[in-house]
## 1
Amino acid sequence: YYTKVKMAEANVVLLDFWPSSYGMRVKIALAEKGITYECKQEDFQAKSSLLLETNPVHKMIPVLIHNGKPICESLNIVQYIDEAWNHKPSLLPSDLYKRSQARFWGDYIDKNVYNSVKRVWTGKGKEQEEHNKQFIECLKTLEDELANKPYFGGEDFGYVDVALVPFTSWFYTVETFGKLSIEEECPKLVAWAKRCMQKDSVATSLPHPHKIYAFALQYKQRHGLE
Amino acid sequence: YYTKVKMAEANVVLLDFWPSSYGMRVKIALAEKGITYECKQEDFQAKSSLLLETNPVHKMIPVLIHNGKPICESLNIVQYIDEAWNHKPSLLPSDLYKRSQARFWGDYIDKNVYNSVKRVWTGKGKEQEEHNKQFIECLKTLEDELANKPYFGGEDFGYVDVALVPFTSWFYTVETFGKLSIEEECPKLVAWAKRCMQKDSVATSLPHPHKIYAFALQYKQRHGLE
């Protein structure tokens, strides 16, 4: 059995791009399950043929390649990891109704957070205020759902935490460019983010906020968004 | 046991709006599982307090209320139904990898089909050609995935079929307003749609294409899109 697991682990490859919150989700899930894997960084100016072959529909990271078979879309990958390595505690709740609630919030995050974050740090001029407002509204919806629980699913770190926490590595960038304080607006959410960072799986998967900021600054310069 | 199932069934309520492809998905899944339920039609000019209470985040149909607990977002509901009523064959494959593929395509349909369909039938002027082109590209991606299989998952009607087939009730509307022939462009997909319509669960859940057309015509008149 031990040999079998080791072999399986040797066949896990992640196609990633380090500032991507979607890639971070997969890294957290793999770390939660204790899976070792090979991580390949993609270059967006010149996507690898491996990326184009394994994700021909979207041509986007992350892609998880398990025993030669590619899985795409980050929350789909997280669910696959959760089901494939079930020797460790499950990220999704076992209760059917709670599971449907977790998927609902994962989906909410997918549909709202990335765009809100990006609009704030790339915004300029009079649109900035509207972008900031929408971003805070989105966070407050999530904070209301978190309420006084330690994690979104309750006592244990799980699926919705994995879905959301990578975006907190962008908070410093968002606050600096957007000239806003997330802690003032959403103190419970910031406390939750700090709680998540106490976990090795999260701390080792998220880049330093200053590194993200340097990336965002470069991105804005390259795209004339200063 | 029989009494218990009957009681559970009595507590299934669907908040719906009949032309919605998302609502049709839920109806098909419930029919596949043989679940009787109460269907309440929502009025979009005056949303019911039940809808606002059960889906406070999106305020959108479909909502499935099972024993008083609301579940939102159509594919999330389909997954919940599949897991909650497991006395009938599963809509999602039991194989982990095939399940991840099914979720990938469900997600692709969610992200692409509704918008493509709507752009074609509401389009006008010189944008029409571009909308038609994008719509056909989207369908061809799906047709490539279907290839020569009877259903998306293989031999049996399943999750991806449930996700996609409701949109085929809009094809007549799309063809009429967009002045295009889906059968010419995607013959395999149209053959698949006809195959799905042989199933009672699908045939009883999809409105007649002419009824959808009359709805779309009214919608365009009301929104000045003629």
## 2
Amino acid sequence: MKVGVLGAGQLARMIALAGYPLGVDFIFLDPAQDACANKLGTHLHGAYDDPALLARLAELSDVVTYEFENVPADVAHFLATHTEVHPSPNALAVAQDRLVEKNYFHSVGIPTPEFAPIDSLADLTQAMESIGWPAIVKSRRMGYDGKGQALVRTPDDLPRAWEAMAGVPAVVEAFVPFDREVSIIAARNPQGEIAFYPLSENLHKGGILRVSECLDGDPMQQQAEDYVTRLLEALDYVGVLALELFQVNGQLVANEFAPRVHNSGHWTIEGAETSQFENHLRAILSLPLGSTKPVGHAAMVNFIGGLPETAEVLAIEHAHLHLYDKAPRKGRKVAHATLRAESQEQLSAKLKTLSALADRVDDS
Amino acid sequence: MKVGVLGAGQLARMIALAGYPLGVDFIFLDPAQDACANKLGTHLHGAYDDPALLARLAELSDVVTYEFENVPADVAHFLATHTEVHPSPNALAVAQDRLVEKNYFHSVGIPTPEFAPIDSLADLTQAMESIGWPAIVKSRRMGYDGKGQALVRTPDDLPRAWEAMAGVPAVVEAFVPFDREVSIIAARNPQGEIAFYPLSENLHKGGILRVSECLDGDPMQQQAEDYVTRLLEALDYVGVLALELFQVNGQLVANEFAPRVHNSGHWTIEGAETSQFENHLRAILSLPLGSTKPVGHAAMVNFIGGLPETAEVLAIEHAHLHLYDKAPRKGRKVAHATLRAESQEQLSAKLKTLSALADRVDDS
């Protein structure tokens, strides 16, 4: 089978590494000459909306998927008229606009923080009357890793927050005093089979994910599975999806979802029976889904901006290093390492060592 | 780091898949245009003894390794004078000649079945006086998967057995009425650190490995570790090595060793904390070795000659499929699947299903 991927970054790279044992060949479309998955398949080098390259991608691929959600709607629709595309252009359209996404959450019964659409400073000022302080202004489109976001604590912050949006449509949402951030990763295949991973507990800093830990048997698992099922079924979704949630007063509220494999699921490579990458492929290739059961205890640490010494990471027993073959650059995710251990105590001890190592090279 | 590999078959393919997360790039030298690792690196296409290609391989690689032991001595020495080569040409030289290998075993205190070198039918006839019946005649060089071997049960079998050697130097060895066949896989790095995997119990049919099962806590583990340590240290070995053993009356005797990753260690991909492929790379790149602890229970089944339906294998919970991207052909290893399970009972139940599937497509 031949799978086309829009994007050839680290997510595409890990999809490909999971796909070779299943006999899958890959075609990547990516504008970067040195895109980090490009050694693992055919690299179509050019813009994501280049009609000739898209036609070539569709022609070469049995199914096309994406490693990011900000795919122009035209591109997704073009591909879908020429080959199989998973997730569907509709799922992408919902995910790439925060207003559409939040309305969609509500339509299927998933609670969110309070929010309001804003198209002007006047809208924002007025919305704050009902949202309450503090709140976050977010551009409706093209946000990731905390980009396109501004926190507002007092009325004085409003003009600068609106200016930060540079005139694009936005939403303002209540800042939720959450107890913790979790995400649930689930896969659904065309037969409607759904597989859920255990919740990940996520730690962000500066809007970028730093640490994810697998929570086996968490009391919120059931509620998260209920919410993600509503979403997967309403969207008639095929592939892996990650739903990010806040836990507030013993309840989950949705932050956003990613229609793709997700950084908070990287621990599944070593820490689950089947990784999110393999299950994404199994889903889009209409194969039976693999077991999502945890294998021991697992946590993942991102390396941001700087690379650790390989030998130093590998000297940590139970550490599994994943380099992305990307040049270090301020704020850039360049690698991660997963710890897998037989006990929580073992995991926690090693996690301190690994996190200290990541902090030392972090220049974000 | 850039690793050159002589050969681009399934072993090279699995080494490469383990190497990408460590940031390794690969260069393969293989005469087959469609060699199954060739999509995972630069493929130098030509004969193993082509001087220009070998020079190019050495030039492109920080270290060169092999996926098979029958590398001409000249080639290994040429490479070793131009770049780092692991395992050493000396380890190859010992492994590729059964007589040298058996004498080497004895020199380091590892017992073997009784054997004698033979260069003629007269030698064979005479040797049988001390070896005893039945026995196996084996060519000294180029044997694998049971090729170049002939069983002799009575004096009448001797002429045909000798003819089967086609005039090449051979050895005759006592046929050992073994209780079981096991192998131990170990890795050693240049610092002298050694890591041992749990024993594999191996089932052969027609000279080809069919099933390997991880034996955690086996009573023979200590003896096997002692033997393989003698070998690794005497050879000043760097990389992964597999030592195949027979168990007879509660003792282990050596059959042969492979100076490379080995089919009986494929279960380590899912069934051990660090796979044999990753540990081979860690060793030859002078990195700390990874934990070899088993992760649950694991067994591997080879697919010989014919391919199973992907969906049928993946429908078996806990089954992990590894296709080699090789066209099915009689007697050819084209894929394997590993079962990983939390209990021995769970493993045994699934192993029956998987083995039945492998038997159905087997045309060896």
